[in-house]
Specification:
- The protein is mainly beta and about 200 residues long.
- It has one domain.
- The chain has 3 helices and 11 strands.
- The strands form 3 sheets. Strands 4, 6, 7, 8, 9, 10 and 11 form a 7-stranded mixed β-sheet that branches.
- Strand 2 and strand 3 (about 25-30) form a beta hairpin.
- The longest helix is centred in the middle third of the chain and has 10 residues, at about 60-70.
- It is globular.
- The two termini are about 25 Å apart.
Length: about 200
């Protein structure tokens, strides 16, 4: 069971989004300091109760995903991601030909070597195609989330999108996943233990 996967017992509570004073974006009526990150981005408030219910493999738990991404932790086991002098190990679900050198955006946190091997054998979408990379440089890009707009009856979702840091829509976004840009990376052969 991947560390970042959501369980059926971890449902978002009834947390209505409200307009912030001065129409400066959205927030929660009973907002707490942990609802926003250091950039002031509002995050989905999902209870963290791993093991409660059944695994929902297609869903990502926003807090655990963010912790793995920001802390360079393995998305499968939650331990440290594999790091060598060449960089941190990432698995991307794209053909190598589609990678954009200097600007590859991903919502998938890095992995440790043992979990990388397990993931490419067990994960249905990685079995079809994946590329392993060592990234020596990466930066916070933005977030994936629900983008709201203000209406006379309150804020309403109008898009689900990747929103870049600095984008004016960020104050109108309830984030669910942290996005990174891999700016300097090398494609590796995962079966080669020297890479």
């Amino acid at each position: 069971m991947p560390f970042i996967a959501q369980w059926s017992g971890e449902r978002d509570g009834d947390m209505p989004v409200v307009l912030r004073r001065g129409l400066r974006g959205i927030g929660y009526a009973n907002e707490r300091s942990f609802d926003r990150d250091s950039y002031g981005i509002l995050w989905s408030r999902t209870p963290s109760q791993p093991g409660r219910g059944v695994p929902e493999y297609g869903k990502v738990h926003s807090l655990r995903q963010r912790l793995c991404m920001a802390g360079l932790r393995c998305q499968v086991c939650g331990g440290p991601a594999d790091r060598t002098a060449e960089g941190v190990l990432w698995l991307l679900d794209a053909p190598a030909d589609d990678l954009r050198p200097g600007a590859e955006h991903t919502a998938h946190p890095p992995v440790c070597r043992p979990c990388a091997h397990q993931a490419v054998r067990s994960c249905v979408h990685l079995r079809a195609r994946y590329v392993a990379v060592r990234a020596s440089a990466f930066t916070f890009y933005g977030v994936q989330g629900a983008v709201y707009q203000g209406t006379l009856s309150g804020p309403r979702v109008y898009d689900a999108a990747a929103v870049r840091l600095g984008d004016p829509r960020l104050s109108w976004t309830r984030a669910s996943q942290l996005l990174m840009t891999l700016t300097d990376f090398t494609v590796i052969d995962l079966s080669d233990p020297t890479t």
